[in-house]
Amino acid sequence: MADMLRQTLEPAQKLQQKQQLVPQQLQSLQILLATTTELSQKVEQEMEANPTLEMVQNGAEEEVGDPLATSDDETSLQNNTAQEASEQDEALAELMRMSDNWREYTPPDYTGTSQPSPEDEERREHFFNSLVTRMSFQDTLLEQLRDTEGLDQEQSRAAREIIGNIDDNGYLRSSLKDIAEESNVHLETAEKALKVIQSFDPPGVGARDLRECMLLQLQRRGDNHDVVYKIVQNHLNDLARNHVPAIAKALNISREDVYEAREKIRQLHPYPGSLVNAESADYVAPDVYVYRDDQGELQVSVNNDAAPQLRISSYYLNLLESDGISKEAKQYIRQKISDSKLLLRALDQRRSTLEEITHILLKHQRDFFDKGERYIRPLTLQQVADEIGVHETTVSRAIANKYVQTPHGLMSFKRFFTSGVTSEGGEKVSDEQIKARIRDLVEDEDPAKPLSDNKLTKILKDEGLNVARRTVAKYREEMGILSSNLRKSHRG
Asked: Which pTM value belongs to this model?
């Protein structure tokens, strides 16, 4: 018993294997995952932290002395053995050999001078000062508030509190009672402040629900008493359910009048805040271009324009050969150059991976590039990974949130990876092809008798495509196609 108790109390040792990413691997992964816009920001941060990195200006190139030469005193740097110094030099030599893939690694146009020229410093400073801070949606409302006259302190305080509770879509997401308490004013004061905010641009801002948002827009137009206003005010839910006959009967108007009113209602903006945010939104930049050359052949080009082209500064390479700086300074420069090498290698790996993936897409999705989106064929990440010789997760990370500019428009990489079914004739048919067929069937249907999901499923089955009804419903919803009862026309 004592032995058993002793065994229980004795600390147990357990061996576990944990896979941890070293900093170099983590940086490489971050570079691979980054979109073109994120990559630009990442490179800017690295340049600010690492003085040995610089941008290529106008592709300028000039030969310099051997940047890999090592003076005698460098072999005895503190905390550096001769073997470590040799390994660093070998790694730096490998970096320079990569110049065939990355022309931006070519030594810069300094002519052996001890410091960068004023022009280079000016360009570097301009690069880091070129980012423009955009006004937020709330900032635009606060600016309008500052230009509003006739408000007392309590109303201004309540108005600022209201603006702080308006989301990016333009809706007020807090109750006026809570706003009055937070701003220490009476409820009537908060109500007056809301009226002021609702007079701002864009029309509909400060609404508490969709109905109020649309009514505010109609009031701004002066359409306070027409059929459109009455439908929004009293029959918006019926309109959403396509209860056209019921609306016509309630308002004593024709069904055609209801349809005309519906078209006007569709011109209103359900999310007025997006009208402001759209002006400052970041546009998607293609990560890869696929285009036809002068001979009509498809070519692949990775987008390197958004991120500045980089190289190792010859100024710091020359300092390694100088006798005028301390060993500690040389050790610091060596470390920064080593960091630069890792970054440039990660950038090169990202470029080559995206290029390889795109070339494989050209092979498997040739029909799409020649004919259009509905000809996308089934393709899996594993198929591409096997051809490249990497793990499936590497492909998944490489294409995450990335886009390719094609002859048929800007496409997400993920659109090229789709499942599908095998037709009765043995042909593989992708999800996109099935969606295209559903879209065609809906466009050709009788508006008075729209095709139900069951009917669409039966037609596809008759054509040799065994697709479940729930899958048809899912595809229809993904394409933004309403259900059959909402598509039904009551005209006539």
From this structure: 0.54
